[in-house]
Amino acid sequence: MTDIYEPYSEYCPRCQTHHTTRIERTRGNCWWITFVLGCIFFFPLCYWLCCASSKDTKHFCPSCGTLLAVRQGGC
Fold it and tell me: Could you tell me how far CA 71 lies from the centroid of its own chain?
């Protein structure tokens, strides 16, 4: 089974070839909601926010930089 948070082989419609994606992890809406609720109600919940799986993962073509997929983390 492929981990959706790691690079994988994807077809790029712009380059018209298969590439292993380049990833960037960003803080999405779910991350911010959990952060605010964790700080207000349950501070130890914020430990989860340090994990890479709590962030959104954007997959890009390494050749042309086209955004190929966004995988939402956490929620």
Answer: 5
Residue pair 53/74 in contact (Cβ under 8 Å)? The answer is yes
> By the 8 A CB rule, do 34 and 45 touch?
yes
Indicate the DSSP class of residue 21: P
At position 2, the amino acid (one-letter code) is T
Which alpha helices (H) appear in the chain, and where do they start and end? 29-40
Instruction: Render pLDDT for 19-75 as a digit per residue (tens, 0 to 9).
Output: 899 999 887 777 777 777 777 777 665 666 666 666 788 999 999 999 998 887 765
Burial grade of 54 (CB within 10 A; 0-12, 13-18, 19 or more): buried
CA distance 12 to 30: 28
